[in-house]
Design goal:
single chain; alpha/beta; Aspartate Aminotransferase, domain 1; Aspartate Aminotransferase, domain 2; 3 domains; seven-stranded mixed beta sheet; 17 strands; 15% strand; globular; disordered N terminus; binds ligand PL4
Length: 453
Protein backbone atom coordinates (compact mmCIF):
# COMPACT_ATOMS: atom_id res chain seq x y z
CA UNK A 1 0.00 0.00 0.00
CA UNK A 2 1.23 3.52 -0.68
CA UNK A 3 -0.29 6.94 -0.09
CA UNK A 4 0.49 10.37 -1.45
CA UNK A 5 0.12 13.88 -0.16
CA UNK A 6 0.45 16.97 -2.31
CA UNK A 7 -0.76 20.54 -2.29
CA UNK A 8 -1.86 21.05 -5.87
CA UNK A 9 -3.60 18.94 -8.43
CA UNK A 10 -0.82 19.50 -10.96
CA UNK A 11 1.66 18.03 -8.54
CA UNK A 12 -0.72 15.14 -8.12
CA UNK A 13 -0.42 14.34 -11.82
CA UNK A 14 3.37 14.21 -11.54
CA UNK A 15 3.22 12.01 -8.47
CA UNK A 16 0.87 9.61 -10.15
CA UNK A 17 3.15 9.29 -13.15
CA UNK A 18 6.23 8.85 -11.02
CA UNK A 19 4.47 6.20 -8.96
CA UNK A 20 3.79 4.21 -12.10
CA UNK A 21 7.47 4.03 -12.94
CA UNK A 22 7.86 1.97 -9.78
CA UNK A 23 6.34 -0.86 -11.80
CA UNK A 24 9.76 -1.19 -13.30
CA UNK A 25 11.37 -2.00 -9.96
CA UNK A 26 11.01 -4.93 -7.58
CA UNK A 27 8.91 -2.96 -5.05
CA UNK A 28 6.36 -1.92 -7.67
CA UNK A 29 2.86 -1.24 -6.39
CA UNK A 30 0.45 -3.85 -7.65
CA UNK A 31 -2.77 -3.00 -9.45
CA UNK A 32 -4.66 -3.87 -6.29
CA UNK A 33 -2.69 -1.57 -3.98
CA UNK A 34 -4.88 1.14 -2.52
CA UNK A 35 -4.05 4.72 -3.45
CA UNK A 36 -4.99 7.40 -0.93
CA UNK A 37 -4.81 10.81 -2.52
CA UNK A 38 -4.76 13.73 -0.07
CA UNK A 39 -4.61 17.37 -1.12
CA UNK A 40 -4.34 20.48 1.06
CA UNK A 41 -6.97 22.64 -0.66
CA UNK A 42 -10.36 21.12 0.21
CA UNK A 43 -13.96 21.62 -0.80
CA UNK A 44 -16.84 20.72 1.52
CA UNK A 45 -17.82 17.84 -0.73
CA UNK A 46 -17.08 14.42 0.69
CA UNK A 47 -15.43 11.98 -1.65
CA UNK A 48 -17.67 9.36 -3.25
CA UNK A 49 -16.90 6.35 -1.03
CA UNK A 50 -17.22 4.06 -4.05
CA UNK A 51 -14.35 5.89 -5.75
CA UNK A 52 -12.31 5.51 -2.59
CA UNK A 53 -12.73 1.72 -2.85
CA UNK A 54 -10.99 1.48 -6.23
CA UNK A 55 -7.55 -0.11 -6.25
CA UNK A 56 -4.89 1.68 -8.31
CA UNK A 57 -5.71 3.32 -11.64
CA UNK A 58 -7.70 1.90 -14.53
CA UNK A 59 -5.50 -0.80 -16.08
CA UNK A 60 -4.88 0.61 -19.54
CA UNK A 61 -3.82 4.18 -18.70
CA UNK A 62 -1.54 2.54 -16.12
CA UNK A 63 0.08 0.38 -18.84
CA UNK A 64 0.46 3.50 -21.01
CA UNK A 65 2.16 5.36 -18.15
CA UNK A 66 4.59 2.49 -17.57
CA UNK A 67 5.40 2.42 -21.29
CA UNK A 68 6.12 6.16 -21.21
CA UNK A 69 8.26 5.82 -18.09
CA UNK A 70 10.27 3.07 -19.79
CA UNK A 71 10.78 5.31 -22.82
CA UNK A 72 11.86 8.21 -20.61
CA UNK A 73 14.52 5.99 -19.04
CA UNK A 74 15.49 4.45 -22.39
CA UNK A 75 15.00 7.16 -25.01
CA UNK A 76 16.49 5.00 -27.79
CA UNK A 77 14.14 2.10 -27.14
CA UNK A 78 12.10 1.11 -30.20
CA UNK A 79 8.98 0.21 -28.31
CA UNK A 80 6.47 -2.16 -29.88
CA UNK A 81 3.04 -2.36 -28.34
CA UNK A 82 1.27 -5.67 -28.01
CA UNK A 83 -0.42 -4.22 -24.94
CA UNK A 84 -3.59 -2.16 -25.12
CA UNK A 85 -5.99 -3.62 -27.67
CA UNK A 86 -6.00 -0.61 -29.94
CA UNK A 87 -6.34 -0.99 -33.70
CA UNK A 88 -3.36 0.04 -35.85
CA UNK A 89 -4.44 -0.33 -39.47
CA UNK A 90 -6.03 2.56 -41.37
CA UNK A 91 -9.80 2.64 -41.68
CA UNK A 92 -10.66 1.02 -45.06
CA UNK A 93 -11.25 3.43 -47.95
CA UNK A 94 -14.97 2.69 -48.54
CA UNK A 95 -15.66 3.49 -44.89
CA UNK A 96 -13.58 6.67 -44.95
CA UNK A 97 -15.52 7.76 -48.06
CA UNK A 98 -18.79 7.21 -46.23
CA UNK A 99 -17.58 9.41 -43.40
CA UNK A 100 -16.24 12.07 -45.74
CA UNK A 101 -19.58 12.20 -47.52
CA UNK A 102 -21.42 12.40 -44.21
CA UNK A 103 -19.18 15.30 -43.18
CA UNK A 104 -19.58 17.11 -46.50
CA UNK A 105 -23.36 16.74 -46.33
CA UNK A 106 -23.33 18.66 -43.06
CA UNK A 107 -22.03 21.64 -45.04
CA UNK A 108 -25.19 21.83 -47.16
CA UNK A 109 -28.66 23.02 -46.17
CA UNK A 110 -30.35 19.84 -47.38
CA UNK A 111 -27.72 17.55 -45.86
CA UNK A 112 -27.82 19.34 -42.53
CA UNK A 113 -31.60 19.09 -42.47
CA UNK A 114 -31.35 15.36 -43.09
CA UNK A 115 -28.63 14.22 -40.70
CA UNK A 116 -27.41 17.33 -38.83
CA UNK A 117 -28.38 18.49 -35.38
CA UNK A 118 -28.79 16.30 -32.35
CA UNK A 119 -30.64 13.48 -34.11
CA UNK A 120 -32.09 10.44 -32.42
CA UNK A 121 -30.47 9.29 -29.18
CA UNK A 122 -30.95 5.70 -30.39
CA UNK A 123 -29.21 6.29 -33.72
CA UNK A 124 -30.15 6.97 -37.34
CA UNK A 125 -32.91 4.62 -38.50
CA UNK A 126 -31.05 3.42 -41.63
CA UNK A 127 -28.08 2.43 -39.46
CA UNK A 128 -30.29 0.57 -36.98
CA UNK A 129 -31.93 -1.23 -39.90
CA UNK A 130 -28.59 -2.18 -41.43
CA UNK A 131 -27.22 -3.46 -38.11
CA UNK A 132 -30.22 -5.80 -37.93
CA UNK A 133 -29.74 -6.89 -41.54
CA UNK A 134 -26.03 -7.60 -41.16
CA UNK A 135 -25.83 -9.09 -37.66
CA UNK A 136 -29.24 -10.35 -36.59
CA UNK A 137 -31.76 -11.00 -39.39
CA UNK A 138 -30.41 -14.37 -40.48
CA UNK A 139 -30.53 -16.23 -37.18
CA UNK A 140 -32.46 -14.12 -34.65
CA UNK A 141 -35.75 -12.25 -34.20
CA UNK A 142 -34.09 -8.98 -33.12
CA UNK A 143 -35.65 -5.92 -34.78
CA UNK A 144 -34.43 -2.36 -35.27
CA UNK A 145 -36.44 -0.91 -32.34
CA UNK A 146 -34.29 -3.09 -30.05
CA UNK A 147 -31.00 -1.63 -31.39
CA UNK A 148 -29.50 1.42 -29.65
CA UNK A 149 -26.58 2.99 -31.50
CA UNK A 150 -23.99 4.57 -29.22
CA UNK A 151 -20.46 5.91 -28.87
CA UNK A 152 -19.10 2.47 -28.01
CA UNK A 153 -19.32 -0.54 -25.82
CA UNK A 154 -17.38 0.69 -22.80
CA UNK A 155 -19.61 3.77 -22.53
CA UNK A 156 -22.73 1.61 -22.73
CA UNK A 157 -21.42 -0.71 -20.03
CA UNK A 158 -21.07 2.24 -17.67
CA UNK A 159 -24.50 3.58 -18.59
CA UNK A 160 -26.00 0.14 -17.94
CA UNK A 161 -24.59 0.28 -14.44
CA UNK A 162 -26.35 3.62 -14.04
CA UNK A 163 -29.62 2.07 -15.21
CA UNK A 164 -29.40 -0.84 -12.76
CA UNK A 165 -28.51 1.43 -9.85
CA UNK A 166 -26.29 0.68 -6.84
CA UNK A 167 -26.13 -2.36 -4.60
CA UNK A 168 -26.48 -5.11 -7.20
CA UNK A 169 -24.70 -8.39 -6.97
CA UNK A 170 -22.55 -8.64 -10.07
CA UNK A 171 -20.76 -11.71 -11.41
CA UNK A 172 -17.82 -11.53 -13.81
CA UNK A 173 -15.63 -14.01 -15.62
CA UNK A 174 -12.19 -14.04 -14.01
CA UNK A 175 -10.16 -12.93 -15.93
CA UNK A 176 -12.22 -10.33 -17.80
CA UNK A 177 -12.13 -6.87 -19.35
CA UNK A 178 -11.54 -4.66 -16.28
CA UNK A 179 -14.31 -2.15 -17.10
CA UNK A 180 -16.92 -4.58 -15.68
CA UNK A 181 -15.39 -4.68 -12.21
CA UNK A 182 -14.26 -1.06 -12.06
CA UNK A 183 -17.65 0.30 -13.17
CA UNK A 184 -19.29 -2.03 -10.65
CA UNK A 185 -17.16 -0.55 -7.87
CA UNK A 186 -17.81 3.03 -8.98
CA UNK A 187 -21.55 2.32 -9.09
CA UNK A 188 -21.64 1.00 -5.54
CA UNK A 189 -22.03 -2.73 -5.99
CA UNK A 190 -19.13 -3.76 -3.79
CA UNK A 191 -18.76 -3.63 -0.03
CA UNK A 192 -14.99 -3.70 0.41
CA UNK A 193 -11.82 -5.30 -0.83
CA UNK A 194 -10.17 -8.48 0.35
CA UNK A 195 -6.40 -7.95 0.30
CA UNK A 196 -5.76 -11.69 0.60
CA UNK A 197 -7.83 -12.85 -2.34
CA UNK A 198 -7.35 -9.61 -4.32
CA UNK A 199 -11.08 -9.51 -4.89
CA UNK A 200 -13.76 -6.92 -4.26
CA UNK A 201 -16.43 -8.08 -1.84
CA UNK A 202 -19.94 -8.72 -3.17
CA UNK A 203 -18.60 -9.33 -6.67
CA UNK A 204 -18.66 -12.95 -7.81
CA UNK A 205 -15.50 -13.95 -9.68
CA UNK A 206 -16.17 -16.93 -11.95
CA UNK A 207 -12.84 -18.58 -12.64
CA UNK A 208 -12.00 -19.25 -16.27
CA UNK A 209 -8.93 -21.43 -16.64
CA UNK A 210 -7.58 -23.96 -19.13
CA UNK A 211 -8.92 -26.73 -16.83
CA UNK A 212 -12.55 -25.68 -17.45
CA UNK A 213 -11.97 -24.70 -21.07
CA UNK A 214 -12.34 -21.07 -19.92
CA UNK A 215 -16.07 -21.60 -19.31
CA UNK A 216 -16.89 -20.99 -15.63
CA UNK A 217 -18.90 -22.96 -13.15
CA UNK A 218 -22.03 -20.81 -13.27
CA UNK A 219 -23.27 -22.08 -9.90
CA UNK A 220 -20.86 -19.59 -8.31
CA UNK A 221 -23.11 -16.83 -9.69
CA UNK A 222 -26.38 -18.29 -8.42
CA UNK A 223 -27.13 -15.29 -6.20
CA UNK A 224 -25.99 -12.64 -8.66
CA UNK A 225 -28.40 -10.13 -10.21
CA UNK A 226 -26.25 -9.32 -13.20
CA UNK A 227 -23.76 -11.53 -15.03
CA UNK A 228 -21.15 -9.95 -17.29
CA UNK A 229 -20.18 -12.45 -19.95
CA UNK A 230 -17.76 -11.68 -22.75
CA UNK A 231 -17.44 -13.97 -25.79
CA UNK A 232 -14.96 -14.13 -27.40
CA UNK A 233 -13.42 -13.33 -24.08
CA UNK A 234 -10.93 -10.59 -23.47
CA UNK A 235 -8.24 -11.55 -22.39
CA UNK A 236 -8.32 -15.36 -22.82
CA UNK A 237 -9.59 -15.30 -26.40
CA UNK A 238 -11.99 -18.16 -25.63
CA UNK A 239 -15.29 -18.09 -27.53
CA UNK A 240 -18.23 -19.85 -25.89
CA UNK A 241 -19.78 -22.69 -27.85
CA UNK A 242 -23.47 -22.93 -28.63
CA UNK A 243 -23.90 -25.49 -25.84
CA UNK A 244 -22.09 -23.24 -23.34
CA UNK A 245 -24.19 -20.24 -24.37
CA UNK A 246 -27.34 -22.33 -23.93
CA UNK A 247 -26.15 -23.30 -20.46
CA UNK A 248 -25.63 -19.61 -19.62
CA UNK A 249 -29.05 -18.56 -20.95
CA UNK A 250 -30.88 -21.41 -19.20
CA UNK A 251 -29.06 -20.62 -15.95
CA UNK A 252 -29.94 -16.91 -16.11
CA UNK A 253 -33.58 -17.58 -16.98
CA UNK A 254 -33.87 -20.13 -14.17
CA UNK A 255 -32.39 -17.74 -11.61
CA UNK A 256 -34.06 -14.57 -12.91
CA UNK A 257 -30.79 -12.85 -13.81
CA UNK A 258 -29.80 -10.42 -16.53
CA UNK A 259 -26.71 -11.23 -18.60
CA UNK A 260 -24.74 -8.39 -20.14
CA UNK A 261 -23.24 -10.20 -23.10
CA UNK A 262 -20.22 -8.38 -24.51
CA UNK A 263 -19.79 -9.38 -28.15
CA UNK A 264 -17.18 -6.73 -29.03
CA UNK A 265 -15.04 -9.35 -30.81
CA UNK A 266 -17.78 -11.53 -32.34
CA UNK A 267 -16.61 -10.74 -35.88
CA UNK A 268 -13.36 -12.60 -35.09
CA UNK A 269 -15.13 -15.91 -34.46
CA UNK A 270 -14.27 -18.61 -36.98
CA UNK A 271 -15.43 -21.69 -35.08
CA UNK A 272 -18.87 -22.51 -36.57
CA UNK A 273 -19.89 -24.02 -33.25
CA UNK A 274 -19.66 -20.59 -31.53
CA UNK A 275 -22.57 -18.18 -32.04
CA UNK A 276 -21.76 -14.63 -33.13
CA UNK A 277 -24.65 -13.20 -31.14
CA UNK A 278 -26.29 -14.52 -27.98
CA UNK A 279 -29.69 -14.09 -29.65
CA UNK A 280 -28.99 -17.20 -31.71
CA UNK A 281 -29.74 -19.02 -28.47
CA UNK A 282 -33.34 -19.82 -27.61
CA UNK A 283 -34.52 -18.04 -24.48
CA UNK A 284 -31.86 -15.30 -24.61
CA UNK A 285 -34.35 -12.50 -25.29
CA UNK A 286 -35.78 -12.80 -21.78
CA UNK A 287 -32.42 -12.58 -20.03
CA UNK A 288 -29.75 -10.93 -22.22
CA UNK A 289 -28.58 -7.49 -23.19
CA UNK A 290 -25.89 -7.55 -25.89
CA UNK A 291 -23.19 -4.93 -26.35
CA UNK A 292 -21.25 -4.55 -29.62
CA UNK A 293 -18.83 -2.17 -31.23
CA UNK A 294 -17.34 -0.99 -34.51
CA UNK A 295 -14.02 -0.41 -32.68
CA UNK A 296 -12.30 -3.70 -33.51
CA UNK A 297 -14.11 -4.36 -36.80
CA UNK A 298 -13.56 -1.08 -38.61
CA UNK A 299 -10.82 0.65 -36.59
CA UNK A 300 -13.29 2.98 -34.85
CA UNK A 301 -11.52 2.95 -31.46
CA UNK A 302 -11.00 6.71 -31.74
CA UNK A 303 -14.08 7.50 -33.81
CA UNK A 304 -16.45 5.88 -31.32
CA UNK A 305 -19.43 3.88 -32.58
CA UNK A 306 -21.15 0.85 -31.13
CA UNK A 307 -24.56 -0.49 -30.29
CA UNK A 308 -26.49 -2.25 -27.57
CA UNK A 309 -29.38 -4.64 -28.09
CA UNK A 310 -32.15 -4.60 -25.50
CA UNK A 311 -34.95 -6.98 -26.46
CA UNK A 312 -38.54 -5.97 -25.84
CA UNK A 313 -39.09 -9.31 -24.05
CA UNK A 314 -36.58 -8.44 -21.31
CA UNK A 315 -38.41 -7.33 -18.16
CA UNK A 316 -37.55 -6.27 -14.62
CA UNK A 317 -39.01 -8.15 -11.65
CA UNK A 318 -42.10 -5.90 -11.63
CA UNK A 319 -42.82 -6.66 -15.28
CA UNK A 320 -41.62 -3.27 -16.53
CA UNK A 321 -39.60 -3.02 -19.71
CA UNK A 322 -35.79 -2.93 -19.54
CA UNK A 323 -35.79 -1.49 -23.06
CA UNK A 324 -37.97 1.40 -21.87
CA UNK A 325 -35.55 2.24 -19.04
CA UNK A 326 -32.52 1.89 -21.30
CA UNK A 327 -34.09 4.33 -23.75
CA UNK A 328 -34.84 6.67 -20.84
CA UNK A 329 -31.23 6.47 -19.61
CA UNK A 330 -29.80 7.03 -23.08
CA UNK A 331 -32.07 10.04 -23.64
CA UNK A 332 -30.86 11.50 -20.36
CA UNK A 333 -27.17 10.61 -20.43
CA UNK A 334 -26.36 10.51 -24.14
CA UNK A 335 -27.04 12.78 -27.11
CA UNK A 336 -26.66 10.29 -29.92
CA UNK A 337 -23.55 9.06 -31.73
CA UNK A 338 -21.65 11.51 -33.93
CA UNK A 339 -23.42 11.82 -37.27
CA UNK A 340 -20.08 11.52 -39.09
CA UNK A 341 -19.29 8.27 -37.23
CA UNK A 342 -22.77 6.99 -38.13
CA UNK A 343 -22.00 7.80 -41.78
CA UNK A 344 -18.93 5.59 -41.35
CA UNK A 345 -21.06 2.88 -39.75
CA UNK A 346 -23.48 2.91 -42.68
CA UNK A 347 -20.58 2.61 -45.11
CA UNK A 348 -19.02 -0.19 -43.05
CA UNK A 349 -22.21 -2.19 -43.46
CA UNK A 350 -22.43 -1.68 -47.23
CA UNK A 351 -21.20 -4.59 -49.38
CA UNK A 352 -17.84 -2.92 -50.02
CA UNK A 353 -17.42 -1.82 -46.40
CA UNK A 354 -18.31 -5.28 -45.10
CA UNK A 355 -15.70 -6.88 -47.34
CA UNK A 356 -13.06 -4.38 -46.20
CA UNK A 357 -13.87 -5.09 -42.54
CA UNK A 358 -13.48 -8.81 -43.17
CA UNK A 359 -10.05 -8.13 -44.69
CA UNK A 360 -8.92 -5.97 -41.77
CA UNK A 361 -10.14 -8.48 -39.21
CA UNK A 362 -8.45 -11.24 -41.23
CA UNK A 363 -5.17 -9.33 -41.05
CA UNK A 364 -5.33 -9.08 -37.24
CA UNK A 365 -6.32 -12.74 -36.98
CA UNK A 366 -3.23 -13.66 -39.01
CA UNK A 367 -1.13 -11.60 -36.56
CA UNK A 368 -2.69 -13.47 -33.65
CA UNK A 369 -1.86 -16.84 -35.21
CA UNK A 370 1.76 -15.76 -35.85
CA UNK A 371 2.13 -14.79 -32.20
CA UNK A 372 0.54 -18.02 -31.01
CA UNK A 373 2.87 -20.09 -33.18
CA UNK A 374 5.89 -18.17 -31.88
CA UNK A 375 5.12 -18.88 -28.25
CA UNK A 376 4.24 -22.49 -28.96
CA UNK A 377 7.59 -22.94 -30.67
CA UNK A 378 9.25 -21.34 -27.67
CA UNK A 379 7.69 -24.05 -25.52
CA UNK A 380 4.85 -22.15 -23.87
CA UNK A 381 1.22 -23.16 -23.51
CA UNK A 382 -0.80 -20.66 -25.48
CA UNK A 383 -4.55 -20.00 -25.67
CA UNK A 384 -6.84 -17.75 -27.72
CA UNK A 385 -5.75 -16.32 -31.08
CA UNK A 386 -8.21 -18.32 -33.19
CA UNK A 387 -11.56 -16.63 -32.51
CA UNK A 388 -10.17 -13.42 -31.01
CA UNK A 389 -7.37 -10.88 -31.48
CA UNK A 390 -5.72 -11.83 -28.18
CA UNK A 391 -3.08 -14.42 -27.33
CA UNK A 392 -3.08 -15.68 -23.74
CA UNK A 393 0.32 -17.04 -22.79
CA UNK A 394 0.85 -19.25 -19.75
CA UNK A 395 4.00 -18.26 -17.82
CA UNK A 396 3.84 -21.22 -15.43
CA UNK A 397 2.36 -19.41 -12.45
CA UNK A 398 4.90 -16.59 -12.42
CA UNK A 399 3.84 -13.15 -11.13
CA UNK A 400 2.40 -11.58 -14.27
CA UNK A 401 3.53 -8.03 -13.42
CA UNK A 402 7.06 -9.38 -13.07
CA UNK A 403 6.84 -11.12 -16.45
CA UNK A 404 5.38 -7.97 -18.00
CA UNK A 405 8.35 -5.98 -16.62
CA UNK A 406 10.85 -8.58 -17.81
CA UNK A 407 9.42 -8.56 -21.34
CA UNK A 408 9.47 -4.76 -21.41
CA UNK A 409 13.00 -4.39 -20.09
CA UNK A 410 14.49 -7.19 -22.24
CA UNK A 411 12.65 -6.56 -25.52
CA UNK A 412 11.01 -3.11 -25.37
CA UNK A 413 7.69 -4.86 -26.02
CA UNK A 414 4.62 -3.76 -24.09
CA UNK A 415 2.17 -6.52 -23.14
CA UNK A 416 -0.59 -6.68 -20.52
CA UNK A 417 -0.13 -8.63 -17.29
CA UNK A 418 -2.85 -11.19 -16.73
CA UNK A 419 -3.44 -10.06 -13.14
CA UNK A 420 -4.77 -6.77 -14.54
CA UNK A 421 -7.84 -8.71 -15.69
CA UNK A 422 -8.52 -10.34 -12.32
CA UNK A 423 -6.71 -12.52 -9.80
CA UNK A 424 -7.16 -15.70 -11.86
CA UNK A 425 -5.29 -14.00 -14.71
CA UNK A 426 -2.05 -14.02 -12.74
CA UNK A 427 0.52 -16.37 -14.23
CA UNK A 428 -0.51 -15.30 -17.75
CA UNK A 429 0.33 -12.43 -20.04
CA UNK A 430 -1.96 -11.10 -22.78
CA UNK A 431 -0.50 -10.19 -26.18
CA UNK A 432 -2.64 -8.11 -28.49
CA UNK A 433 -2.65 -8.83 -32.23
CA UNK A 434 -3.31 -5.19 -33.09
CA UNK A 435 0.06 -4.34 -34.62
CA UNK A 436 1.61 -3.43 -38.00
CA UNK A 437 3.02 -6.57 -39.64
CA UNK A 438 6.64 -5.33 -39.78
CA UNK A 439 6.50 -4.40 -36.08
CA UNK A 440 5.06 -7.80 -35.28
CA UNK A 441 7.85 -9.55 -37.16
CA UNK A 442 10.43 -7.52 -35.23
CA UNK A 443 8.65 -8.29 -31.96
CA UNK A 444 8.69 -12.01 -32.79
CA UNK A 445 12.45 -11.89 -33.47
CA UNK A 446 13.08 -10.17 -30.13
CA UNK A 447 10.85 -12.60 -28.24
CA UNK A 448 12.55 -15.62 -29.84
CA UNK A 449 15.93 -14.28 -28.80
CA UNK A 450 15.05 -13.62 -25.16
CA UNK A 451 12.41 -16.19 -24.25
CA UNK A 452 13.53 -19.52 -25.63
CA UNK A 453 12.82 -22.03 -22.82
C1 LIG B 1 -8.45 0.39 -23.72
C2 LIG B 1 -14.51 -6.83 -24.15
C3 LIG B 1 -9.33 -3.08 -25.21
N1 LIG B 1 -9.30 2.60 -23.43
O1 LIG B 1 -14.18 0.81 -27.99
P1 LIG B 1 -15.39 0.31 -27.28
O2 LIG B 1 -15.76 1.17 -26.10
O3 LIG B 1 -16.56 0.10 -28.19
O4 LIG B 1 -15.08 -1.14 -26.71
C4 LIG B 1 -14.28 -1.33 -25.57
C5 LIG B 1 -14.25 -2.76 -25.20
C6 LIG B 1 -15.46 -3.36 -24.89
N2 LIG B 1 -15.51 -4.66 -24.56
C7 LIG B 1 -14.40 -5.39 -24.53
C8 LIG B 1 -13.17 -4.82 -24.81
O5 LIG B 1 -12.05 -5.58 -24.75
C9 LIG B 1 -13.08 -3.48 -25.15
C10 LIG B 1 -11.78 -2.82 -25.46
N3 LIG B 1 -10.68 -3.37 -24.76
C11 LIG B 1 -8.35 -3.90 -24.40
O6 LIG B 1 -7.12 -3.77 -24.63
O7 LIG B 1 -8.75 -4.69 -23.55
C12 LIG B 1 -9.02 -1.61 -25.14
C13 LIG B 1 -8.78 -1.09 -23.75
C14 LIG B 1 -9.65 1.26 -23.77
C15 LIG B 1 -10.71 0.72 -22.81
O8 LIG B 1 -10.57 0.85 -21.63
O9 LIG B 1 -11.69 0.17 -23.29
Amino acid sequence: MFSMTTSTSSLLGKQLSSSSSKHLTKEQPKRHDKINVKVAAMSNVSRNPNMAQLRAGYLFPEIARIRNAHLEKNPDAKIISLGIGDTTEPIPAPIVSGMANAALALGTVAGYEKTGGYGSEAGQQPLRDLIVKRFYSEKTKINASEIFVSDGSKCDISRMQQMFGPGRKVAVQDPAYPAYVDSSVINGHCTGYDEKTKRYENIVYMECVPGNDFFPNLEAAKDADIIFFCSPNNPTGAAATRAQCKELVDFANKNGQIVIYDAAYAFYIENPDCPKTIYEIEGSETCCIESCSFSKYAGFTGLRLGWTVVPEALKFADGSSVRFDWNRCMCTAFNGASNVAQGGGLAALSDEGWKSMQETVGFYKENAKMLKKTFEELGFKVYGAVDAPYVWVDFDGRDSWEVFTEILTKTDIVTTPGAGFGPTGDGFVRMSAFCHRDNLETAIERLKKEFAK
